[in-house]
Amino acid sequence: MTTATRAYVSRLAGLTVFDPNGDRVGKVRDVVVGLRVGTACPRVLGLVVEVVARRRIFVPMGRVTALDPGAVLLASGTLNLKRFEQRAGETLVLGELLDRRVTVNESGRPATVVDAAIEQTRTGDWLLSRVAVQEPGRLGRRGQSHQLEWDEVTGLALPQTGQGAETLIATYRELNAADMAHALQELPIKRRHEVAEAMDDVRLADVLGELPETEQITILGTLEESRAADVLEEMDPDDAADLLSELHAVDRNRLLELMEPDEAESVRQLLKYSEDTAGGMMTSEPVILAPDATIAEALARVRQEEITPSLASQVYVCRPPSATPTGRYLGLAHIQRLLREPPSTLVSGVLDDLEPLKPEAPLAEVTHYFATYNLVAAPVVDAQGRLVGAVSVDDVLDHLLPDDWRERARRG
């Protein structure tokens, strides 16, 4: 395998880092450079590597012995596991330089940075030597792309306003929502808000659900109210209710008024319950089927991508109407049982008559219920016998862990 002396930063992101023994250290999340005066190429200071428990550490470039196409190799020695803190004069290539607007010196045309190349010199140092830029196209088409030397563009060393985020978001596309939320928190505040603004509603809703409440409120507050309402509609109703419960009543009611009536009503129902009860933890959108539904229909429903694994573990059978609060609750069917029965069998014929939770059940009762029956989701039924929602195990864990557990995990 040939060791590269030039590497493109977007391709480094996510590569596995190995120590000399071949043991996995972590994954590359960014490259740190030091911008210099004038047109001198920035010096590469090191890599930001995510290790166990999502802690991000700094690995000096002098410790890197090879940048292979599929991995980064380190020299022997002890790694400093102190959490990475960006210092004055340091710039994150992925986090701060991608999507930066620059001017191509030769033509004077504007362009956007879409990638950057680092290159090893004869002395063994690494420099950020080249940038890939894309000029704006006409009539919505993609413009020309160029690879240019560092000194062939201007605008990289200057403070930026209105910096886009499309390329950075594309780099993070493969991250799940929790990892994307973690990556977002590692960005400078200004950049964090730019990235949140550029995400689509569905992606931002998923990421918000994985952020600490204070960060959720801050990001929501940077959005226009109509956009904030759209994002809340895309969130799981229980997550949206938790977030809105932290807002001032005036702001909460204004956002609810801007939401679609059906979506807002689901959230309003959840806001009625105390947050440490089954009603406060549940989602109002479990998989609900009519008594005459077949197992084939049930399996088709739980295959839908937007349904979380815990909610897909079982379906709930109720008489019409099928929206919560439903008609009379009849029982639930576990996915494992459904897989063992003929597809044409009615779901109502394989129901478990497990006693459901009540909305007012406290956290201690809910955890005892989950432990007793070895469940990952549980039905919640009101005094009239109607299904009002389902509690999933991840919601229970959220309430058992300390309020700042996400922040503690980020700090390692």
UniProtKB/TrEMBL annotation:
InterPro entries membership: CBS_dom, CBS_dom_sf, Mg_transptr_MgtE_intracell_dom, MgtE_N_sf, MgtE_transporter, PRC-brl_dom, PRC_barrel-like_sf, SH3_actinomycetes
SUPFAM superfamilies per UniProt: CBS-domain pair, MgtE N-terminal domain-like, PRC-barrel domain
Record domain CBS: where: 350-407
UniProt keywords, alphabetically: CBS domain
Pfam name, any one: PRC
The UniProt record lists the keyword Lipoprotein: no
CDD domains: CBS_pair_Mg_transporter
Protein name in the entry: CBS domain-containing protein
UniProt organism field: Blastococcus carthaginiensis
